[in-house]
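Hey, can you fold this one?
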Amino acid sequence: MQSEEYKNVKYYYEAGLNYSRDTDTRNFEKVKNAVRKADVALVFVGEEAILSGEAHSLSNINLIGAQSELLKAVKSTGKPVVLVVIAGRPLTIERDLPYADAVLYNFHPGTMGGLAIMDLLYGRENPSGKLPVTFVREVGQIPMYYNHNNTGRPAQDWITPLNDIPLEAPQTSLGNTSFYLDSGKDPLFVFGYGLSYSTFEYSDLNLSNNEVGVNDTITATATIKNTSNTDGTEIVQLYVRDLVGSVARPVKELKGFQRLALKAGESQTVTFKLPVSELAFYGKDLQKKVEAGQFDIWIAPNSADGLKGSFTVTE
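Sure. Predicted structure:
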């Protein structure tokens, strides 16, 4: 049964136009002619469920078949393009983003996924999900994850990318820091990243104490405001970094998150209570303990941004 919201939508379907693995582009003109009759083109791409899971590894995680070529062909019509990705893993889609005006990324959503996706595309629901993994630009960046240890030579903002190296340049140092000449130092999308039809503003980070003992609890608060005209839900995240440890510590660790439903224009205070005991880790003696020292803390929309503070743990 067709719902009221979708009854006036015209759907165009050409038999056999499945480019998930097919490399045949002969029917692209038919696709483009259909798109020209529409207001917006929805391009569904990704991978079949059989291609992901245990013992289903791929060495190339670009869109396979003629999917990227199909997207370019649709974009060439001048119509707005919404790219809908359904896949079992984070694909390397940076090369495809210039040909889409919006992207909705879905991990395999199950039997009712189609209706859920339509509700999101038509604005009956507002997306609120955040990425549980890091999306790389190229497979050569793997492994890449937000909670890595510091390399000792972190990349600086002045790195020299491949295209800035003159032809026939002499052999010389380009900085000897941790980055790739062809894809830089950053992922495509960071852990915890996600957008919605709403926009949110973070402000007024406050810590209950700047100095706490190992048996204490620190409380962190911030104000989150929905700055849009659309009701939405923001997933607010809490990150911590132990600046110095007896063993190498991650540059960031997720310590908590909250879903915060905000009406258009509404502000709320979000509160995180972090027991200092949750900062413990196993040392070289295999004993789990909290070490005294300085810590950074963030209340953030993702693992790369947010409001930053600091506190000290004393023995």
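The first strand starts at residue 41 and ends at 46. Let me know if you want another pass with a different chain boundary.
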